[in-house]
Structures are given as structure tokens and as C-alpha cells.
Write a structure and sequence with these properties.
By secondary structure, the chain is of the alpha+beta class. It contains 13 helices and 19 strands. It has three domains: 154 residues, 2-Layer Sandwich (D-amino Acid Aminotransferase, Chain A, domain 1), CATH 3.30.470.20; 81 residues, ATP-grasp fold, A domain (Dna Ligase, domain 1); 150 residues, Rossmann fold (3-Layer(aba) Sandwich). The strands form five sheets. Strands 1, 8, 9, 10, 11, 12 and 13 form a seven-stranded antiparallel sheet that branches. It has a four-stranded antiparallel sheet with strand order 2-7-3-4, covered by helices on one side. It starts with a strand and ends with a helix.
Length: 390
């Protein structure tokens, strides 16, 4: 689950992570009132969407008067903001964050993410603040500092020293401030089951203080039961409606850009299925894990959601019957064809518990567009071929 910048900064405040003052607004009138309340002579008007690259897309504006605050709020609110993370369809801006101006001397990057290879969180930092970290990693990977932190011992002084020395910060007072900043950020990450925290840019002011000028935060969905306050921050208008609908039926669904729909049980098998489709020369249209409790209704809902995508030219059903029985899936497929107009070829590979019974069910059903596959490679190859012939 992701949250907005203004929400991330509310959490920062609870942990003493310094940020500029700001107030969220839903209308231009509120934006003007917020600017008056903050005071000063410079304000920043920021679109609030769950995506990075807002500034490049025209969603972040520096206002030097109250009139400009109102003008920019009028421009940004209601716009379909397109960034490199939203896709060409963009996202509708429904809120803006009015933030006080800051005395920026330097811009850094600071984040905490999970390193799956090391099986522990790492603190990432760079002197290239304000730039897309993906571009820095590609063009200047040596400028990214990675400090792994074992959760068993937590953030220690030597982690902080590695961080400030890597960033080239030599002033002892500034070193102390940044180490304190990073320590609080790591504590926030661990205590809230975060998956990712990104501050880009982290600014140094003229007084040598460090402020989170931006804030991006994502959390482990499976841990939200421990964090009701964070779950209450969920903005469903920012989430994909198909993914939201799938979750109501216990389906894990993520839309992709390909043309072969995938219906699989188990996240690992789903990833392997998508990889095999790519290897065979095709492109997956989605990730869909039906889980271990699939029935006719959930399978039918899976087909319905997959077929909402007009790009889908074939569907590959790849089930390994462990918890879920293959014959149940086979019957689910038959019921789904009655409940949903499945108008593309469906390649079915069922293996495991009751696989022979499942094969017999599908064979006797004699449905023209259901094609049996013997294994993963055979299924992927047939799905790619069917999509190309469509």
C-alpha cells in the first residue's frame, strides 16, 4: 500500500524526521488559505498522486505570491498528470500540498528499502538528489551508497559513519544531524512494516539542517492489520480498479502491458509462468494468483478481470494442484465459460492432485477454444502461438 507525500510527512513528524511545514488542500480557495496560514513569501504547490516524477510532468510549481498559489492550484487540481511512473493515461490530481519555501544549499537522496539478496534492509544514499535514482544507478552507479542494516542489531553508529563519509560530509555538526536523521528513518521503517521509504530530495539548508523536501512511502499489505492508522490512509482512488476488485475475491492481480493473460496458483509459479512466456517470445498481460482456495466463482471472476483488457489475445491457465485440486479448477473453468464470454483461446496446464480427473473433465467438455498443455513449456509455447495467430 502506498500513501501520499503529505501523509508520509505526517508519519515523519511522529518520528521527529524534519520536514518543511505544509498543509493539504482540495480546492484553490483552501490552497490560498493554507498559504496565508503558513506565511512567508514563497510556497510550493505540489500535486498529490501515488507516482514519482511529478515536477517533470508539471505537478510541482514554485509560487512567489498568493496570486500564483491560486493560479497553480487551479492548474494542477483536476489535471490528468502524466509522469514516467503513471503510464500514458496519467493520474487525476484531487489534492495539492501547499508547502513553505526552503533555503536549499544542497540536495541529496536518502531511502530505506529491502535488499532481497542480502535478506535485510539497506539505507541508500546519493549526492545526486533531485534526480531519478534509476537514472543515477544506470549512469553513475558509483554515486549510490548502500549501507545494509541487520535488523537483529538495528541502526548503529558505524552505519551512520559509513553513510556520512560516503556522502562526503565532513562538518562534525552536519554529520551528527544526518546520522540522527537516518536513525529515525530506519526506526520508522522497521516499526511500521514499510517496504520502501524514499526522500528525494533530502535538502541541506543554509543553517546546516537536513529536511525531507519530499516523501514517498510504501507498506507491506500483509502487515496492515498491525497498523490501523496507516491502513486508514489508504486512497482507493489511486489504486487500479481491477486490482481492487480482484482483491475482494481473494485474487492477487497486477495489470501488465502484454497480450497473454495468466491465471496461476502461487506467486512463485506465476512469476515463473510469466518468465517462460517471455522466453517463448510472448508478453504477459497480467500477474494473477488465484491462491489455494480457488472455486468456480473465483476462476470466473479471474477470467472476467483478465478479459477486461482488450489487448489479451490468449489466456494461459497454469495450475499445480497442491492445496487446490486440479479437478476443482477444471470444473471452475467450465463454469466460467458459462458465466463469462471467454472469446480467446484458453491454454490449460493442470498438474498435481487429481490432474488425470481434471484432464478427463476438460476432454469430455469438448470446448473448442480450450487447449490442453502437457507442461509449463508446452503451455507457454501454445499460448504464444495462439496469441500470434489471433
Amino acid at each position: 500500500m502506498n500513501i501520499h507525500e503529505y501523509q508520509a510527512k505526517q508519519i515523519f513528524a511522529k518520528y521527529g524526521v524534519p520536514t518543511p511545514r505544509g498543509i493539504v488542500a482540495n480546492t484553490p480557495r483552501q490552497a490560498v488559505a493554507n498559504a496565508h496560514e503558513l506565511g512567508g513569501k514563497i510556497w510550493v504547490v505540489k500535486a498529490q498522486i501515488h507516482a514519482g516524477g511529478r515536477g517533470l510532468g508539471g505537478g510541482v510549481k514554485l509560487a512567489r505570491s498568493i496570486e500564483e498559489v491560486e493560479m497553480y492550484a487551479n492548474q494542477i487540481l483536476g489535471m490528468q498528470l502524466v509522469t514516467h511512473q503513471t503510464g500514458p493515461e496519467g493520474k487525476l490530481v484531487q489534492k495539492v500540498y501547499i508547502e513553505e519555501g526552503a533555503d536549499i544549499v544542497d540536495e541529496l537522496y536518502l531511502g530505506v528499502v529491502l535488499d532481497r539478496a542480502r535478506e535485510m534492509p539497506i539505507i541508500m544514499a546519493s549526492t545526486e538528489g533531485g534526480m531519478e535514482i534509476e537514472n543515477v544507478a544506470h549512469d553513475n552507479p558509483e554515486k549510490i551508497i548502500k549501507v545494509p542494516v541487520d535488523p537483529a542489531i538495528g541502526f548503529q553508529g558505524f552505519h551512520g559513519r559509513e553513510l556520512v563519509f560516503g556522502l562526503g560530509i565532513t562538518d562534525p555538526a552536519e554529520q551528527k544531524k544526518l546520522i540522527s536523521f537516518a536513525s529515525k528513518l530506519f526506526k520508522l521503517y522497521m516499526e511500521n512494516d514499510a517496504e520502501m521509504i524514499e526522500i528525494n530530495p533530502l535538502i541541506k539548508t543554509g543553517s546546516g539542517d537536513f529536511l525531507a523536501l519530499d516523501g514517498k512511502m510504501g507498506f507491506d499489505d500483509s502487515a496492515l492489520g498491525r497498523h490501523q492508522d496507516i491502513e486508514d490512509m489508504r486512497d482507493i482512488s489511486e489504486e487500479d480498479p481491477d486490482e481492487r476488485e480482484a482483491s475482494q475475491y481473494g485474487l492477487s492481480y497486477v495489470s501488465l502491458d502484454g497480450e497473454i493473460g495468466c491465471m496461476v496458483n502461487g506467486a512463485g509459479l506465476a512469476m515463473g509462468t510469466m518468465d517462460t512466456i517471455n522466453y517463448m517470445g510472448g508478453t504477459p498481460a497480467n500477474f494473477l494468483d488465484v491462491g489455494g482456495k480457488a472455486n468456480a466463482e473465483t476462476v470466473a471472476k479471474g477470467f472476467e478481470i483478465i478479459l477486461k483488457n482488450p489487448k489479451v489475445k490468449a489466456i494461459f491457465v497454469n495450475i499445480f494442484g497442491g492445496i487446490v485440486r486440479c479437478d476443482r479448477i477444471a470444473n471452475g473453468i467450465l463454469e466460467a465459460t458459462k458465466m463469462v464470454n471467454v472469446n480467446v483461446p484458453v491454454i490449460v496446464r493442470l498438474d498435481g492432485t487429481n490432474a488425470p480427473e481434471a484432464a478427463e473433465i476438460l476432454k469430455n467438455a469438448n470446448i473448442a477454444n480450450v487447449i490442453a498443455a502437457t507442461d509449463l513449456a508446452d503451455g507457454a509455447a501454445k499460448a504464444v502461438a495462439a496469441a500470434k495467430q489471433a
